[in-house]
Design a protein that fits this description.
22 helices, alpha+beta, single chain, five-stranded mixed β-sheet
């Protein structure tokens, strides 16, 4: 067994280190396709710099990227293969429409590990595969569907409000209440029955608390190929990985497949997402097995719970903290009662629109950067003052970060302040400013749930 000797192992390790050093030197050399772009050499050399801030520092690379832009300008190289742009006026080039395909980048999708979430529409790398996976579900998130479900949403809102009022004098986390509210709505719509979080004794646990460990592991998964490989065994060892992991895996591998199976066996035409999608026959054969379906179901719950709950929490805080804002909103809603309130009426109230836009600005659904790859065209960036121009080679991942764009001081003066008035011009919605919002993402990969928001509010 000479080939397993210590000296042989050391030689292999030495060769691997030489390879990594050589690769790092190439990454910062003039021969690399991105060598012309500004940015710290340590970030261009390897992914270790990014991993340090994302993995070791707990997802703080976005803050470091913002500091890079302050030093190097609107486009910077943030790792060996990726660029980042901080100019909101370039958003429609990076996140273009369907006639200019944009792929996602696998490096950023590695956060899903090897779970069913990794085979969903959200996790599809190519523009074409994403379109195939998304299309069967798209019709269920139209304006017409919002109007059909209005009474159910109102019923869940009433139950949540009644439960909140019953807890007067107690201290609890309002976000957990909204997590229960949003999870019951999306599960009712997707599977035909709520998950029962509003009906339980308190507000915890709920789907979001179970997902917490999953989210905390996301950056580790992105930078650790060994962990992604080992993740395939998580369902078999979940009982030994803590209560939250066990419950989340139980939801993803038992509860959600159970809901979907019941939908498959149901003969009722109840307008629920999975029942109708499965019966419609619109799913590709490769996307219709339980593994894929449970991933899509999990994604609907992940996207429909935590994001909306976060925005509602931000909205609640500022309405309680700012009496002036609360007063203006109440005056804007004059004439409406719980018995007469309708979406069609709410969407005509300008100040309410502005309040919601400001809450979405401060708590967008996806806060980290999201890169796109223009596989068939170079992207030409020109600054508005004409002093800066870059040509981004086709095939290069380049992205933006909503939290950087939404804190752009030119578009959003005093960005730390909650100012709904910034969204109004002469008392009417400022739709021009709305074009620069990334609350739901941009382009063909924007959140499918955006369509649930009435056009006036988007």
């Amino acid at each position: 067994m000479e080939y397993l000797s210590l000296s042989a192992v050391l030689r292999l390790v030495g060769l691997w280190l030489l390879y990594r050093i050589g690769l790092a030197l190439y990454n910062i050399s003039p021969w690399h396709p991105l060598s012309r772009f500004p940015g710290p050499k340590i970030a261009a050399a390897s992914y270790i710099y990014e991993a340090y801030y994302d993995w070791y520092k707990g997802g703080r690379y976005g803050m470091r990227i913002k500091a890079m832009h302050a030093r190097y300008g609107p486009i910077v190289r943030i790792n060996p293969d990726e660029l980042h742009c901080s100019d909101p006026y370039f958003v429609d080039e990076i996140y273009a429409g369907p006639t200019r395909p944009r792929d996602k980048w696998q490096h950023q999708l590695n956060t899903g590990g090897a779970s069913p979430v990794s085979v969903t529409a959200f996790s599809a790398v190519s523009h074409d595969l994403h379109r195939i996976r998304r299309q069967p579900f798209a019709k269920f998130f139209s304006r017409q569907q919002v109007l059909r479900l209005e009474s159910e949403v109102f019923e869940f809102a009433t139950l949540t409000a009644d439960k909140i009022l019953a807890t007067t004098g107690k201290v609890w986390d309002i976000k957990q209440a909204f997590n229960c509210f949003t999870a019951d709505i999306i599960s009712q719509y997707a599977f035909g029955e709520p998950m029962g979080f509003i009906a339980q004794e308190g507000w915890e646990p709920n789907f979001a608390t179970w997902c917490d460990s999953f989210f905390k592991s996301a950056y580790m998964m992105r930078h650790n190929a060994v962990a992604r490989t080992l993740a395939t065994a998580v369902p078999f060892v979940a009982n030994w990985l803590g209560e939250d992991v066990r419950r989340f895996m139980h939801q993803m591998t038992v509860v959600i497949p159970g809901y979907i199976k019941a939908a498959m066996e149901s003969e009722q035409d109840n307008g629920r997402v999975f029942a109708d999608v499965i019966r419609s026959g619109t799913l590709a054969e490769s996307e219709s097995d339980m593994y894929h379906l449970s991933g899509e179901g999990t994604n609907l719950l992940l996207a429909g719970t935590e994001t909306t709950a976060g925005t509602l929490t931000m909205l609640t805080y500022w309405l309680l903290a700012r009496e002036d804002i609360r007063g203006k909103l109440m005056r804007d809603l004059e004439g409406l009662t719980p018995e007469t309130i309708k979406w069609a009426e709410l969407e005509q109230r300008p100040y309410m629109w502005a309040v919601i836009q400001e809450a979405l600005r401060m708590t967008p659904g996806v806060t980290h950067r999201s890169a796109r790859i223009a596989r068939g065209e170079d992207l030409v960036y020109k600054s508005r003052d004409g002093k800066t121009q870059w040509v981004v080679p086709k095939g290069t991942p380049i992205g933006m970060t909503s939290m950087i764009n939404h804190w752009d001081e030119e578009l959003f003066p005093e960005p730390d302040a909650f100012r709904p008035e910034r969204w109004l011009v002469n008392g009417k919605p400022n739709f021009e400013l709305k074009k620069y919002s990334m609350s739901f993402g941009k382009g063909t990969r924007s959140c499918i749930g955006e369509q649930w928001v009435p056009p006036f509010f988007r």
